[in-house]
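Quick check before the chapter quiz. The format below is the same one you will see on the exam, so make sure you can read both the input and the output lines.
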Amino acid sequence: MNGVITMAEEKDQLLNDYEEEDFYLSSPRRTMLAKGVFKELFHERNVDHSNLSDHVKKALEDAKEEGMLKPVAVGAIPFDPKNAPQLIIPEKILFAEPLQENDKLQDCKVSVRTYECQFIPEREEYMEGVNKGLTYIKDGELEKFVLAKALRCQTMEPIDNKQILRNLVQHNAGGYTFAVNLLNRQSVDSDQIHKRTFIGASPELLVSRSGTAVLANPLAGSRPRSEDPVEDKRRAEELLASEKDLHEHAVVVEAVAEGLKGLCKNLVVPDKPSLVKTETMWHLSTEMKGELVDSQFTSLDLALALHPTPAVCGFPTKRAYEVINEIEPFDRNYFTGIVGWCDESGDGEWIVAIRCAEIENSTISLYAGAGIVEGSKPEEEWNETSAKLRTMLNAMGLNDL
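Here is the expected output.
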């Protein structure tokens, strides 16, 4: 890596230096900005995800042999393996200390004031999808599945990706804020270049590796926040006592623990979840810690062993995939995929790609999902997904939508 920034007063500089072609990630452990493309790892749509980690390891070794001092792979891996990963080895990476909630950043500004927005699917169709999935749960085919919706917004004005990113960082400093260049593509029917950016502020760490230390932090079970402190506290307490949400959370925790079992020793899994909050949501959270049984396992190996968790797909995974593809009327692309990095030593962190959007020219597509289990109510799941969209809508300046 050609540059490292460590001074606290430099944190905001990485945001100032961010451009659409870059990779940006801020987490509770560090802030990083990757510039340039030393090597693009995948070009084709159909990639064998079973060999993904080996491919990345080989690319990092090749980059080292070609003269890069400390190569790092960064990017996004999609929810559905039929789509290609967007992973590169950048030319340069800058690091800074993690951003804190009390850090003073430049004032947020409204990004774009005029959008025409449409839900995909609309309310009634979404609720019908919840009911359809509940029949599969009742019949014993599923224990849980996650049903998502999209909000597609079109504007005549340019979309300011940089300002949206800054707004996300400003209001989600304790979480994981990211921007991934999805590599420009040319339209099949014109010479127009489509610039695509995947951007968001996720509260959920899938897994990280630092030396032999492994950390995972699954979230499942949610409530919208309230501006009234008394009501906000009531919702948090209700969530922590909800049998339905505790069951949903337990399904995810058990799956993550099972996925880590063969890769980690001394795995510590708390008996009960705790509460974590974002600006817009309360979540049930369980933080797991373990130690690698073999230093050859990279952060990407760990991430791929867990992805997708029941928090974003369902359980059993294969049947949940089938139901999602049957009911959802859109391709999730990188929503509920993972975003992160892995260096030559195997260290890295991978984030669950939620509270996010894909920006392409003058269109921005927002996504949100809800976990459907026995006892789920369609209207409540619609309202939950709408609340989850607030993270991105606020960053766009659409506070009243």
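If your answer matched, good. Residues 243-261 form the longest helix (19 residues).
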